[in-house]
Amino acid sequence: MQRRHLLQALGASALGVNSASAMAATGAQDTRFLLVFLRGGYDCASLLVPTASSYYYETRPNIAIARPGQEGGALPLTPDWGLHPALAESMLPLYQQRQLAFVPFAGTDDLSRSHFDTQDSMELGQPVGGRRDYRSGFLNRLVAELNPRTGNTPATAALQPMAFTSTLPLVLRGAVDVPNTLLSAAAGRSGVDARQAQLIESMYRGTPLATPVAEGFATREEVARTMQGEMEAASRNALSTKGFEGTARRMAKLMQARYQIGFVDVGGWDTHVGQGAATGTLANRFEELGRGLAGFADEMGPAWKHTVVVVVSEFGRTFRENGNRGTDHGHGTVFWVLGGGVGGGRVAGEQQALTATTLFQNRDYPVLNDYRAVLGGLFARMYGLNAAAVARVFPGTKGVDLRLV
Fold first, then answer.
1. DSSP string for 275-287
2. Where are the beta strands (DSSP E) in 98-150?
3. 1 or 293: whose pLDDT is higher?
């Protein structure tokens, strides 16, 4: 895959004053937007698999998703990309119906590789390196932009935002009062528990494999203890994927009836250890997340036609696997864009080949599609925002139109 500017190929451009879309014509009251934040930095190279990259398979001998047609192989999307097989029944049908697009090489210029700093940076939507105003998140600024006021009276019927979280996230803090409610406190941990480990060890007792098995479990527990605290902290009390489908369907009912802009976060993506490949820990989370998003789409009914869901994460993970068959904190990631009116069935945005010489700092996906520009362009098309309005939502940024709606 040669580096190419798909923005130009698809007629995309920096947004001007009069840019709008058919979705904007339906009116903000009928349009629904949900932002899903995967806290912990998910491994985008397992989600949207760079099947054309031989370097991907060289650097991931244990956790790479096989090429299409092989056992446990990726689901073919384009000649360059495949989808994790755990999403065969949930996301692949939406992609085939052109209701799902992916934007790889996406993210922020924040280089801290800290969950907390990068999550804060993304939620605030302010220029990296400048003074942070923690009282002003970009979704709150969007709501304020869509609810113009004359004095203390809204000029139009107010759009209603909702955070489906235990506490109000930074992204929805600001001048507009926003409620929050946690629809589910479901949590779960996958993997082999202590009782199962003991049973497995007993099976190999007295055999040549007894010592390696015992040492393997001991190492696993030591690493797990080290990393568990970080994973829980990185998730910031976000929902687990366990039971997410039920939560997503409840969110859909509320958004269909009352709320036009929503936010939910889902944790558990900090996979430093044993993330698996076609099956395993990460595959289970993809499967649960996919079912939840498909359930949300189903529950929205006719309103799905005017709904957009964007799935983001603070960063991706290292292109190479680490010594624990997992991945570490990275940089660029992949965004998902779903909706009944989405220009899907494609992989959008600027892209480049993934080789030993094109990785960022010799380890990560580079960021070629700035999240503020991508979301700014999306909001412009959804709501008919002009360039000045986009710049108020994302200061110092011009939206880039990827024709996602």
1. --SSSSHHHHHHH
2. 100-107, 149-150
3. 293
